[in-house]
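[stage:ingest] chain + small molecule (S-adenosyl-L-homocysteine)
[stage:ingest] validated
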Amino acid sequence: MNTLFGAAAVSARGRGVTSQRARDRLVATLREEGIRDPRVLDVIRTTPRHLFLDEALAARAYENTALPIGLGQTISQPWVVARMTELLIERGAPQRVLEIGTGSGYQAAVLAQLVDTVFTVERIEELLRKARRLFRNMKFDNIRSRHDDGNIGWPAEGPFDAIVLTAAGESLPRAVSAQLVEGGTVVAPLGPAGAQRLMRFTRSGDAWESEDLGAVSFVPLLGGIG
Ligand code: SAH
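[stage:predict] done
[stage:export] tokens:
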């Protein structure tokens, strides 16, 4: 786990729209919109989301909305990050968590404060390079990252206690579900653009329990590396 932001958090304090007040307002909104887990709300409150955005968009970092991060990709909406995190940690504390779709690195940073180790895979090298720089600067030494097609998971590091996809495919890639431990949880948006659903799958032996947790909107899960 990692709760240290050092200079980053300190320098953000009191700076208008990126201030602690703006973060507190965001947390109040998330609570009103059904996020209950106090651990998740605390982490959202203390994580400097503006640092995961280009400076031109930093002023909007604590709005409850997805924002562009370049290369046609987006940083997920805070509510979605909070909800997926809540769903992942609800049934015990997963130690090793795989994320597919590092993007800005924000979801990985949130998770890294609640679980032992986050393994995150991104197919666009330029995004991964930026995210790695942030992880280093913020001293997230429990985030491991890899430039690859997440459709194959991270075979050398599996199995994982929990897996989260932050890009939407038609179905769960077979290689990914094969890397989940018995009793583990997968949270993933599934379905075509305009009709995606947030799903949670729990594995017991060869049987999979699935829950439909409502409509969401994510960028597509693509194949290959960029
Ligand atoms: N978790 C991110 C959300 C980024 S958007 C955040 O908090 O900012 C989803 C990301 O998934 C994009 O960066 C996209 O490039 C990546 N992606 C899409 N298909 C992928 C694949 N097959 N393997 C790895 N990453 C993928």
